[in-house]
Amino acid sequence: MGRDAQIAASLLVEAGIPSKTAGDLQTFIDALNEDTAFVIITEEALRSSDLRQISSWIETQPSWSDLPFIILTHRGGGPERNPAAARVLETLGNVSFIERPFHATTFVSVARSALRGRRRQYEARLRIEALDEGERRLQTALEAGRLGAWELDLATSALTTSPTCRAVFGHDPGDTFTYAQLLASIHPDDLERMKTAVKATIDTGADYAIEYRTIWPDGSAHWAEIRAQLYRDRSGKAVKMVGVSSDITARMRSEEHQRQLNEVLEERVAERTAELHEAHAVVMAEVAQREHAEEQLRQAQKMEAIGQLTGGVAHDFNNLLMAVLANLELLRKHAGDNPNVIRLIDGALQGARRGASLTQRLLAFARRQDLHIGSVDLAGLVREMADLMKRSVGTSVVIETAVPDDLDPVLADSNQLELALLNLVVNARDAMPDGGTIRIGLTEQELAHREDELAPGRYGVLSVTDQGHGMDEETLQKAIEPFFSTKELGKGTGLGLSMIHGLALQLKGRLRLISAPGKGTTAELWVPVSKQAPAQPSEPAPSPQGRNSGPKRILLVDDDFLIAMSSVDMLADLGHEVVEAHSGRDALERLKQDGPIDLLITDYSMPEMNGGELAKAARALFPDLPILIASGYSELPAELGFEVARLGKPYTQQQLALEISKVLDTA
């Protein structure tokens, strides 16, 4: 009333705080929204007014919001001096009183205090929104992986399940599903084993991991895989188990079918062997050779089948990691200065990167990793890795090397050789828990005749020998199988030697293990000798400046909506304009209709039209169009007839920006 509004607005302007003036209570109520920082109102404006609309607005505020009110009064703010203050406090909640006449400094101080409090509320809103977004992405990842989430309260046995989890046990999304129903659905022969595993997790805190048979409401039999972790309260008491479930019926049936086929094959081999043993002795020799060949064939078929399965799983997991890594990387850039949020994001990034490292091992085992083969100075590689190997094994282990100077280079991928050598050294260290000596040697061997999988020729042989406990013959035969490990649970993936074995086969070499109990182990990596000298590092050519700088118009093609969404966000964050398509045919239509495109980025593995076929069709329309193919596999189509750049999945925003720059610079 009077000049109150003008004075208050002038003081706020001088303090750098913009404001709006409402001449009556209804105008004020209509102007309220979440962006209102605080409210200044005179006591007489509230004294005889109906405050129900204000009260309703305050009660419906979001959980993070508590709008501050500054009341200008003639009688102070305490109930003893101003009985009406109690009504105001009850209605408005977050109230500060300024008694008139007031000093300008006091008024501005109270206003700034209210503004600071409101800013803290806005920061809380951002944190809540970030947590909600993280929860949504986690749920998307669970659904993409067909994993059902569940939680068991150990005090009440209350079971909370997601629709996917209920489906694993044959229930509809809207069905109730209690812990008692879960126990009743487990096959009687597996029930005690399941209860024992749950008790062991509660007693020891070890992760819960089990596979068991289930009986669905319709009477059909299925298999479920369950994994969980134990949660404790601050006093250390076990309070709940949280985990995921998945339906593995198809996998178990496939394994059972394969087992039956193997049994039939073994029976036939046994029958044939018995017949041959009844014949002459130049025949017994033939039987021995045939048995050896059949065993090698079965092992090769087994390893090939596992390799194909592993490569497919690793490719799909790469896609999931692509979405997780990209979104976490962008979220990290916009996380602000909150240390808790940054810590959570960095932890998630670290876990996702470890997952990406695991997929590279899986692809190496499946023989699908992208090798860059050339002449490698094996002796120089061992010398350059000396410090890294010493730091990796610790002070209780001594590393000795015997590296001649006159060895010829080998034909290999230097990065993969470094990884293989480091794996062998770490395995040797783990075999000597009380310390010892690891000997690394280099020799050249000449094969005059074919020896198993090795063709005649010269080979460089890298050997790593330890003084550990060694392996018996049965363990030695399984050592290169994927996921087989003699290490404690959680201390090894079982992929190290299988990865090296896969690498050796790709290089047309072999991994040879020599061991006996109590005698230690020698691992030999045989790699063909190269006829060319190792390439010397050259100075990188300076990239042209200015010609390809600035935002570009990019057509992004990916049939996976999660990856497309994260990739679009990364490109947009780099300043590019993105046109999005989810199939090859959709991409061709956009090339024809959506105007000029500076760069085409496409996934390779897509239904109906893959990335290679799309690249050929796009070049037919626009011969000079730069193309970048993204793929988790190393293979690119050989029938294209022209060179295309490749971007390996999963990739970071920095890698994406670098490859875009390379493609545009060479276009």
From TrEMBL:
CDD domains: HisKA, PAS. Residues 134-205 form the PAS domain. Keywords: Phosphoprotein. Residues 312-531 form the Histidine kinase domain. Residues 208-260 form the PAC domain. Residues 553-664 form the Response regulatory domain. The keyword Nucleus does not apply. The modification 4-aspartylphosphate is found at residue 603. It comes from the Bacteria. InterPro entries: CheY-like_superfamily, HATPase_C_sf, HATPase_dom, His_kinase_dom, HisK_dim/P_dom, HisK_dim/P_sf, PAC, PAS. Residues 531-551 are annotated as: Disordered. It is an enzyme of class 2 (transferase). This is histidine kinase. It comes from Shinella lacus.
